[in-house]
Amino acid sequence: MRKEKQKLLVLSLLGLVSVNLMAQQKAKRDTIKNIDEVVVTALGIKRQDKSLGYSTETIKSDEILKTQNNNWAQSLEGKVAGLKIQTAGAGSLGSSVIKLRGDISMNMDQNNALIVVDGIPLNNSTTGTGFSAYGAGSKADLPIDYGNGINSINPDDIESISILKGSSAAALYGSRGAGGAIMITTKSGKGKKGKIQVSLNSYSSYDSVLKWPDYQYEYGQGTMQKDTNGNYFYSYGASADGVNTGGTSSAFGPKFNGQYFFQYDPTVEGQSLTRQLWRPYKDNIKGFWQTGTTFSNSVSVESSNDNTSFRTSLTYLKNEWMMPNTGFDRFNAALSLDHKVNERLKVGVKFNYSKMKSDNLPATGYSNQSISYFMIFQNPNVDLVWYEPIWKKDKYQTEQIHPFSSYIDNPYMIAYEMLNGVDKNFITGNVNVNYKIAKNFEVMFRSGMELTNEERTQRRPWNSANYLQGMYREQHVKLMDLNNDLLFSYKKTFNDFDFSASVGGNIRYSEYTMYDYLADGLLKPGIYTLPNGISNITKFAKPGDKQVNSTYGLMTLGYQNKMFLDVTARNDWSSTLPKSNRSYFYPSASVSFILSDIFKLTSNKFNYWKLRGSWSKVGNDTNPYKLIKYYNNSDFSGSVEAPSLYPNPNLRPEMLTNIEAGMDFSFLKNRVTYNFTVYQNNSKDQIVDIPTLLETGYSKRTINAGEVRNRGIEMTLNTFPVKNKNFSWSINANWSMNRNKILSLPEEFHGEPYTMGSVGGVVYYNAVVGGSLGDMYGYGLEYSPDGQVVFGTDGLTAKPTQMKKIGNAYPKWRAGLQNEFRYKNFTVSFSFDGQYKGMAYSQSHHKMTEQGKLTHTLVGRDNPNGLIIGEGVVQNPDGSYSPNTKGVAVPTYYADYYRRANVETNSFDTSFIKLRDARISYSFPKSVAEQLKLTDLTLALFGRNLWMWTKFPLFDPEAATLNDNQITAGVEMGQLPTARTVGIQLNVKF
């Protein structure tokens, strides 16, 4: 047998690691994966995967672009073990936070992964409207999803994404990397070998609602009232048939059975002159929604030679969302330039610009001004067409059409008059210089920035439920985040040892301002300017400045390319901590053993066996201005108000300790690879706000206390069951489980729970020793010793005096499965993912059940006398129990059993399986492409969220609430529908 030629591959990894590999020049056809692939790690340092002592995963750009998303991050869902994309179901932008390995902090907004673009960390913060998701009946506005930094990144510019899952992997990022890091590398044009390549990516997609609640259309508006003859009836306003029954939002009225009643008549804007057919309008909610559309066109030009590589791109995306008159336009421009000045000096520039503009983004939440609120209150016998004129005759801009309740705003007024505009400019970029001082010694300087300039407007017309004289608001948000890194690196090979070391420093400065102007009431209707305000409120800029200075170091030692040791150290000095505690040090260490090489176990069947382990300690600071007393801006011009938070001048940094171990295997000439990881995180000295006595003049104070432990398991499997010249089939699967436990709480609570947050005043996220982060507390049912529901003598459920644990917002485990089939020029791929257990409370379910809008409320309506007897027992005076026999009116029963405060009966299992995405593509043969003077021509059909199985009764089991600027899992509070998407994509290269 001819001995195949071999050559030496030398991987020079940013001057930090030099690895000699003997690789076959001619790869065998059935060898699938190169296990020596390169991974982008912390600080943008490229490392060989086999040398890493912690778990990482890499997603290539093809995976992101398979099924185009308005927010590219959602394409990661189900594809990475331990990763969760949390969205709020709040509209077209789909703002999201990325979590890796669950929550680690009792501070609910400190659990997100760090986003890093080309080595520069993003702030990725969001400024909210200042309002909670629950605001019904109050003069309040609503949260609006204005997007965050992730939204602004153009997926066409992304080359790859490396996921650094634990704090060991992201230790060099310090406190910002405590929750892991998402390392985004943008395209640079390298590897084009002097040729100029032009690429076009164009797609069109169409959205429809994935899942609707199970609305009932058998009974209409009313509360089971009867006429003088003892028959159920309906009357819009008092009539010859009886009293007015048209003023209720409930649908416990007469059954649709061909009757004729006096109803609302839009031609007279009041009671019909004659009786009209009593009938349902089954499209009176779904018909409001339209087919959403997204059109995107991207063009890029790139090239490279031995000294220079460049790439530039332009992308324009136009979205019209499913809710009428909502959507956005986004323009992206990117530039990448790398140049080798001489043998010692290299320079590089990265620049990304995004402009997002919208005349109207939908508000979300449970309040009069949201379309969710209208959908909840819409009755089966009300035609949607009646609302379309918006304004009553001769009362344009002064009196809306909402004939059934003054609290329910006209849906078309919400869509076309209650506008939430935004004009956002977002810039990221960096300049890096790499200078080779000596043969094995070099220095790198990198300066990067993130700039955000955002102008928002909110318009509320006259006669809206919350603003009888209208409202106009302007918000001006500015954010600047600067990062400067200096890194010295040395490498050397000593016989069998490869040694590299790096030391450097970072200065990060963040500056934030927000100006808020409000015209409360409009002098003239329909004119939205600040001078037209009856009273103007100005909130001057509240600063949010912060600086962190850091030094860090990394040492790597490799032996015979079989054993590796990494040691890192970092020290931070944070401006948000007191002088005595602002300096904090944290180290990490990791090891990797290639057991298959050490014990010479490699064969055709068994290729690779790696054992890895890591340990790290990471510090975490806090938000600015918690050390001394600062006054807040008041709504009254020229005045201030005292803060509610009592400052703590002695705060210490949180400390997170992480331990991780795992093994990687490869079998059958790398056709099968398997990765297994276990980890534990302990977070101590958490920085939390606790209540304090009101007589102190404050409502809360900040302290260090509490410890949380996180444990988890992650597994991934990649395999090629079939691979030959014409056909291949690949399978990628992942499974992850995370458990956290609260080990201690502040002594001040004396064993009582610590409330980390709440939504709507009904669901409380309480921390209890022995419990878990994500535990949901609220009122529920009472049960007899044998597990039966206890009712009172009035036939209604017994009312508990203490809240109890209802469930946990997070699932017991998550899993994902991807398949890809290639046959000649055709490629078919699809991806499933899902989760087991988890719990979510639904405000919409409560209200629609209370009002008889869902099919499960049909039970009992035909009972004699319209009474229903709750299934359960009544406690007798002697303490024993007997069956409940007391009947109550059907509307009363549902209103009580599913009352808003009963978190238990309105919370549901969020287990689900989704066909997350699917794609079929055809790459035209080279003979066809060459005739068209193209190098590549691919046409594809794709889909997202095409199918779902779940028992969750509302729109989507992945429920979360946008509360001001925070996305809170486990609560549905006026959620907007989730989109099912289909589209067509064209890729051209020449």
TrEMBL record:
Positions of the TonB-dependent receptor-like beta-barrel domain: 421-946
Annotated TonB-dependent receptor plug domain residues: 51-181
Keyword Transport attached: yes
Membrane topology reported for the UniProt record: Multi-pass membrane protein
Origin: domain of life: Bacteria
InterPro entries documented for this protein: Beta-barrel_TonB, Beta-barrel_TonB_sf, Plug_dom, Plug_dom_sf, TonB-dep_OMP_SusC/RagA, TonB-dep_OMP_SusC/RagA_CS, TonB-dep_rcpt-like
Protein keywords: Cell outer membrane, Membrane, Receptor, Signal, TonB box, Transmembrane, Transmembrane beta strand, Transport
Extent of the signal sequence: 1-23
Pfam families: Plug, TonB_dep_Rec_b-barrel
Coiled coil start-end: none
Record localization: Cell outer membrane
Similarity section: Belongs to the TonB-dependent receptor family.
Protein name, entry field: SusC/RagA family TonB-linked outer membrane protein
Lineage of origin: Bacteria, Pseudomonadati, Bacteroidota, Flavobacteriia, Flavobacteriales
